[in-house]
Amino acid sequence: MKMRFRTKLAIAFFTVGLLPVLLLGYLNYRHAYKILNKQAIDQLISLRQDRKVRLQHFFEDLRLNLRMLSDHRMFKDILTDYLAAYNKGGLDGEEFKSVDKRYHKRCVDICE
Questions:
Q1: Tell me, what's the pLDDT at 103?
Q2: Full 3-state SS string of 46-86
């Protein structure tokens, strides 16, 4: 089966015309991939920095709150009584229940 010259010429023009389109498509794909990848990494870095700062503030606030509570004499007394009662009979012991009954409302008030 012999192809006519006109068919061969059409196939040649089609091939020559398709190669630049495929090459440009591939180059644009690579360029877009690099840009999108860089944007995603930049966003993740930014998110990481934001979370880091928020965690640092959270722990700083927590540290300040604990320092304030540790300086509070009543809180020290309450903790001492709770620990002594726990060491004697655990959470179900009568002494622990008595201490809890005595201090529970104050502890809730301090925490709020």
A1: 84
A2: HHHHHHHHHHHHHHHHHHHHHHHHHHCHHHHHHHHHHHHHH
Question: Which has more confidence, 98 or 72?
Answer: 98
Could you give the CA distance from residue 33 to residue 22 in angstroms, rounded to a whole number?
A: 16
User: Nearest to residue 32, comparing CAs of 22, 42, 24, 43?
Assistant: 24
Q: How many CA atoms does the CB half-sphere of 21 hold within 13 Å?
A: 6
Q: What are phi and psi of 92, to 5 degrees?
A: -95, 0
Q: State how far the Cα of 5 lies from the Cα of 3, in Å rounded to an integer.
A: 6
On the 0-12 / 13-18 / 19+ scale of CB atoms within 10 A, 18 is exposed
Highest mean pLDDT among 6-10, 25-29, 76-80, 101-105: 25-29
